[in-house]
Each structure stands twice: as C-alpha cells, then as structure tokens.
C-alpha cells in the first residue's frame, strides 16, 4: 500500500530535495509540501495524508505546535519529525506533542521508508541515534534510584492493562502482544485504548515514557544497583 505523505520544511531547497528523494522511494507518494507549520496543518485538513514529514524550526507555526494540532484535529495522520536537531529540547517536546517518528536529516531513503512504515503499523519510527538518547534519558534515573514497584497500578489500570503496557514498553507490536498473552489482536487493541484513555496517553512513545516513569518497565540495557 502506498503511503500518502506531506513534506513540511521552511527551506525551499531542502524541501524540494526531500520531495525529489521521496519520489524515488517505493511505497511513498508525496501529495503536498508546506513551507511552515500553519500550511502543514492546512494541507493535512485538505489532503488527509497518511504521514506528515515535519521539520521543527519553521516560521508562523513551528513543528511542535503543528504536530500537536495535527494529532489533535486529524488523528488519522501520523507525524514523523525530520530535522537537523536531536537534542532534548527538540526531541521530547516533539514526542510529547504526538510525533510517532523522529529522524535527523542525515537519514537515508531506506530509513525514511522504514520510519513511515513503522508509524503506519503502530510502531515508533525512531532513528538509532534517537533510540539511544531515549534509553540514556530513562536508564540513568533507574540506575541511580530505581523506583519502587507501586502497590497497585497507577491511574486505575487493571492488572491486564498493566501487563499489556509492560509489553508495549518492551517494544512488542500488537500481534506479538496477542501471541504472548494468548488473546486476539482486537482484545489487545481494546486494552491499549483503555489504558491510553486512563493514563492520558496519545501514542506508544508516551506509553513507554509512562511505563518507565511509574516503574512498570525497565529500559533495555539498564541495570539496577
């Protein structure tokens, strides 16, 4: 299935280069391009793309705010950030706004295609550099002061919802969770929708953060001392 994509970047040369690159990649159709966040929101409403490739530093409406508006007003459209910056001041606000993918502009065509496919399948489309930064961010507090396991799940989560959340934090897809728990995919989706609603979560990236913060899961590669 071809993914319909809108490209948002305020630098004309960069934007046109990305559009040209995407035009050569399998499974992607560029349906529009925007020069700022405001235009990206407008094109999303007009074209209903599957994915917006979003720069962060743009005039009028920056990429974080545009991402927040798109995910709120058009939840059927996913956002993959494509930016020069991978520091905390850009990464975490973008993920909290609802971006499901985050790539830096040194990503090649295969990485972009993979990120688009990942977010459309419900996974997180993160570059290796960003994945390492997330692990570093969450692993360090665990090593220095591991949170005690809560007496009962937070926000009224049931035991099964908590179990599903742990598996999400381990990086399992919905079908993998279903096989692990010996339930249907539909049941897994119901549990995920319920726990997202109870915890006020928008996507899997936020769910992983939530699980680490509440001591329900441990980042890979971390050790408790």
Features of the shown structure:
WalR-like, NreC/VraR/RcsB-like_REC, CheY-like_superfamily, 225 residues, six-stranded parallel β-sheet, alpha/beta
Globular, elongated, flat, extended or rod-shaped: what is the shape?
Answer: globular
Biggest pleated-sheet summary: 6 strands, parallel
Strand order within the widest beta sheet: 2-1-3-4-5-6
Q: Give the averaged pLDDT, no decimals.
A: 85
Beta-sheet strand percentage?
Answer: 5-15%
**How many DSSP-defined strands?**
6
| Low-pLDDT segments, ≥5 res | 142-150
Summing up helix and strand content along with how strands pair, one would put the structural category as alpha/beta
What Rg do the Cα atoms give?
18 Å
Distance between the termini: 47 Å
Encode the helix/strand succession as letters: EHEHEHEHEHEHHHHH
Query: What is the number of helical segments per DSSP (H or I, 4+ residues)?
Result: 10
Fraction of residues in H or I helices: 40-55%
**How would you describe the oligomerization state of the chains in this entry?**
single chain
Pfam families: GerE, Response_reg
Domain Response regulatory: 4-120
Protein name: Response regulator transcription factor
Keywords: DNA-binding, Phosphoprotein, Transcription, Transcription regulation
């Amino acid at each position: 299935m071809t993914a319909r994509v809108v490209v948002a970047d305020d630098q004309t040369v960069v934007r046109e280069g990305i559009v040209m690159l995407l035009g050569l990649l399998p499974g992607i159709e560029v349906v529009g391009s925007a020069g700022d966040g405001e235009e990206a929101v407008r094109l999303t409403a007009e074209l209903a793309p599957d994915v917006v490739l979003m720069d962060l530093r743009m005039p009028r409406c920056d990429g974080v705010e545009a991402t927040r508006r798109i995910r709120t007003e058009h939840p059927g459209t996913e956002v993959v950030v494509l930016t020069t910056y991978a520091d905390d001041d850009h990464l975490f606000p973008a993920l909290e706004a609802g971006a499901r993918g985050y790539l830096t502009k040194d990503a090649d065509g295969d990485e972009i295609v993979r990120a688009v496919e990942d977010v459309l399948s419900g996974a997180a489309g993160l570059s290796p550099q960003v994945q390492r930064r997330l692990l570093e961010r969450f692993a360090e507090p665990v090593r220095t002061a591991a949170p005690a396991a809560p007496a009962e799940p937070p926000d009224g989560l049931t035991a099964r919802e908590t179990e599903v959340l742990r598996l999400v934090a381990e990086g399992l897809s919905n079908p993998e969770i279903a096989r692990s728990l010996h339930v249907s995919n539909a049941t897994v989706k119901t549990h995920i929708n319920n726990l997202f609603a109870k915890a006020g979560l928008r996507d899997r990236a936020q769910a992983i953060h939530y699980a680490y913060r509440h001591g329900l899961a441990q980042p890979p590669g971390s050790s408790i001392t």
